[in-house]
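Students often ask why we bother encoding 3D structure as a string. The short answer is that it lets us treat folding as translation between two languages. Here is a chain of 398 residues written in the first language.
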Amino acid sequence: MNAPATPQRISQTSSRQDPSQQTEWLALLQCTSPRADLDRLASLVQNPFSWPVFLQGVEEHRVIPLLGANVKRLDHPLIPPQVRDKLRELQRAQTLFALQLTAELFRLLAHFANAGIQVLITKGPALAVRCYGEPGMRQYGDLDLIVREADMRRATQAMLDLAHEPRIPLTAIDAKKTPGEYAFRKPGTDLLVEFHTERTFRYHPRPLQIEELFERSAFVTIDGREVPVLSLEDELVLICVHGAKHFWQRLMWIADVAALISRQPLNWDRALAVANEVAAQRILRLGLRLAVDLLATELPAHLEATVQSDRAVAKLAAQIESRLAHRGLHEIGIFQRAAFRVRMRGGFLSGLAYLLRLSLTPTEEDWTRGKEGDRRALVDAISRPLRLARKHSRPSSK
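And here it is in the second language, the structure alphabet:
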């Protein structure tokens, strides 16, 4: 077996970064690693250490609960009182919001069960329980549910019955428009619910077979209730695809990968088969490489050898690690985005096809509001790359 990743390996990975970031970044990695070394963390937060810089990184990367859990285990004098107060305030807000979302989740599941609509939960509180043991130990801003596309109209009506306002109107569903996700917001609250179908999972390189997700589904216990979720292996591939969709710009997504594979008994042959089904082998390898490099995650020997031998993954991982280590979440230029998409698919031609599909498949941002069912799909497809070019035309900050 290859030598396992260790906290020292984290230090070696990050020591190449901007020196002004180094100590705070290393502390952030220790707080989010499944193998956090408290002695190492305690030594890092000694002077010189910028708590404002550190807390800024914690908030940007959405890892407040993980920081709070580790800070509680440190000697009290190491943490300035104002920092403890700030963390307590942030954790309280996150815990209350997680409780609201969980309560709404139970309400939705009961209503959908009565309506005879089968759903699966992904990410959110279910992933928090799998990765960290509690619904409030992960930052999330919405609930993510998976349904069949054929059920989406009924699902929209069910959400209307529950007084949730849809971003995607029934006219667009009837016109067979495909959004990025079917989003609903509860008026007067910050509660956001997003539904995903086999058609909205567009960032999977190959179309996802949703019936197989339901066949392989499992259950997770949240606050004493069993909720239907993806299998561990499907969840792992999905969160890697989600991280790649967002160019792995938040450490939280890497922490999720690291925690899931460190704390759950995955069937690795099945995980690789699931990735192969949707042509996401390289996407999975990149997620695993980041978890190993940054957060000291261990993999089975044969799998680590495969991950480490992928040169394209190594290059992409180095770029992502360098970007993450600097303060602020930098905008990625349009050409960098395009190159990343192509490399994620594997071969150049298949990668180019993947990029073109993503660039030419319109979402709700490309529709004309109020006329979703009137405008031709070809017009939307042509307008999409123009909109994306305007949105991402400014150069990367790196």
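Translate back mentally: The two ends are 36 Å apart (CA to CA). Keep this in mind for the problem set.
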